[in-house]
Amino acid sequence: MREQLEGSQAVAAAVARCRPEVIAAYPISPQTHIVEALSRLVASGDLAPCEFVNVESEFAAMSVAIGATATGARSYTATASQGLLFMVEAVYNASGLGLPIVMTVANRAIGAPINIWNDHSDTMSQRDSGWIQLYAESNQEAVDLHVQAFRLAEELELPVMVCMDGFVLTHAVEAVELPSQDAVDAFLPPFAPRQRLDPADPVTIGAMVGPDAFMEVRYLMHAKQRLALARIPVLAEEFAAAFGRESGGLVRGYRVDDAEIVIIALGSLLGSIEDLVDARRELGERVGALAIRCFRPAPLEQIRGALMGARRVVVVEKAFAAGAGGVVGQDVRLALQGTGTPVHDVVAGLGGRPVTAASLEPIVAEARAGTLPDLTFLDLRHDVVERELARLPGAVA
Amino acid sequence: MVQVRFHGRGGQGVVTSAELLSTAAFLDGHHAQAFPMFGSERTGAPIQAFCRIDDAPIRAHEPIEHPDVLVIQDATLLHHVDVFAGLARDGVVLVNSPRHPAGLGLADLAADVRAVPASAIAGEHLGRIMPGTALLGALAAVTHLVSEASLAGAVRLRFSGAVADGNVRAVEDGWAVIEAGAYA
Question: What pTM was computed for the model?
Answer without folding.
Answer: 0.96
